[in-house]
Amino acid sequence: MISVIVPTIGEKNIAGTMRLILYRAKHPVEIIVVDGDGYALRRVGRENVVKVASERRGRAFSMNQGARLATGSVLLFLHADTELPLHWDVAVMKSLQKSDYGFFNRRFDSAHPLLILNSFFTTLRARLFGTILGDQTLFVTRKVFERVKGFPEQMLFEDVGISKKLLGYRRGFVSSAVVSSARRFLKKGVIRQFLLNQYLWVLYRMKVSSKRLYSLYTGKNLDAVCMLAKYPSLGKVKTRLAATIGKQKALQVYRRCLEMLILEQGGSDFFLGYSPTDQKKEFMQSYPGLQYVAQVSGSLGDRMQALVSTLLNTHRKVVLMGADMPTLTRKRVARAFSLLDTVDIVLGPCVDGGYYLIGMKHEHDVFSGIPWSSDLTLKATLKKIKGLGLSYRLLQTEQDIDTVEDLKLYRKKGLKI
User: Fold this and answer.
1) What is the rounded CA–CA span in Å between residue 333 and residue 348?
2) What is the mean pLDDT of residues 19-47?
3) Correct CATH for 2-188 of 3.30.70.270, 3.90.550.10, 3.40.430.10, 3.40.50.150
């Protein structure tokens, strides 16, 4: 069976894409829609379509996630704005009789002369050199996809990245054309978009970081906010508070903190650093539409270091925050990102000697050897920062919620928690 994996964010015609996949296939196929913003989960209702919320935004992450869920022996990666030709599944299986992977001829749904030329030379380059773009619809046997370890997890040019990995395998080609939307070219201007694409291609070949390429492509800075959180289970969270008010009430307080922070901070740059790792499914069901990244085993310092390392691979700056200060505003986090333009580390101190936020733009070892959950946590961290010769700034000192006295202070301020 062929598994069709469709990554999507806000594609308005996603339901129509699903219908065409099924209608134009001669045999039964599996469709997996990996939804980056919840739109497809609401719009696609077909029983024979597997719908799943994307764990992380970005095509590479979504396609790898879909591949892990797929049950077919052949994987086909389809952009949500691209249409497959009639009996595409027959053409794919015929091509794979003599190859390990392949791609389709591609044309745009516009007769603009430059787009026709673009399609011709893109196909020629793919046939001669094996550089396959995403809208040329890569198909590959599961065995080979797993052998090359999937798409490189980067924000742009993941299609070129996997093309390089596949060069040692037999390449096939389907002459029937997929039809890709030209709306991005038509909206920005065909020549302008074409020049931007070529500029980005040159920078990519010069090994400019994917973070910088993404910023040029979207016009946005790629910064990440990550909240560390345990799954809200009775007796597993807010244990110091539970000793006074009981496990059930402490659980309710923790859930309310999570809900308030997700509502305030949630957005395209927000991640939930979850723990334990075996409860990701429950987390995603309780808090859908977020991006998820697992906390590794080890001390709190080990987990924070790993999260910073993971997110700085794809983002320009990273801010980590806890789930104990429900009044932390988006404006305060934005202030932390702004300060990182001029210093190495930003910290948000807590009254009890810890900190509710830490941000950085390069990975630094400021987490090892720190006495966690102590009134010396911030002091030891600052000593380590100074010892490394790093610059830092402190945000406003705040009160987090660890004890019943902390909770009473918040309630006195009118917080319904």
Assistant:
1) 10
2) 76
3) 3.90.550.10
Pick one of 3.90.550.10, 3.90.45.10, 3.30.1330.60, 3.40.30.10 as the CATH number of 223-412.
3.90.550.10
Judge whether 347 and 357 are in contact, CB under 8 Å. yes
Strand-pairing partners, residue 347, are: 358, 394
380 pLDDT more than 90: yes
- Categorize the per-residue pLDDT at 406 as very low, low, confident or very high, splitting at 50, 70 and 90: confident
Bigger pLDDT: 408 or 162? 162
Closest-CA residue to 60 (of 170, 157, 201, 173): 157
**Which among 395, 393, 396 has a CA at the least distance from the CA of 343?**
393
Which structure tokens are listed for 386? 């100074």
Distance of alpha carbon 21 from alpha carbon 17, whole angstroms: 6
What ranges do the domains of the chain cover?
Answer: 2-188, 223-412
Tell me the pLDDT tens digit for each residue of 333-375. 999 999 999 999 999 999 999 999 999 999 999 999 999 989 9
Whether 295 and 61 have beta carbons less than 8 Å apart is answered as: no
For 393, phi and psi rounded to 5 degrees? -135, 150
CB-based burial label for 232 (10 Å; 0-12, 13-18, 19+): buried
> Six-digit token pair at 124?
């020629």
Pairing between strand 317-321 and 223-230?
parallel
Is 220's pLDDT higher than 70? no
Decide if 2-188 and 223-412 have a common fold. Answer: yes
- Report d(CA 342, CA 327) in Å as an integer: 26
Can the peptide bond before residue 7 be classed as cis, meaning omega within 30 degrees of 0?
no
pTM higher than 0.90 for the full model?
Answer: no
| β-pair type (30-35, 2-8) | parallel
Maximum Cα–Cα distance for the chain, whole Å? 73
Rounded to an integer, the average pLDDT of 128-142 is 95
What is the residue type of 319? V
pLDDT averaged over the chain?
Answer: 89
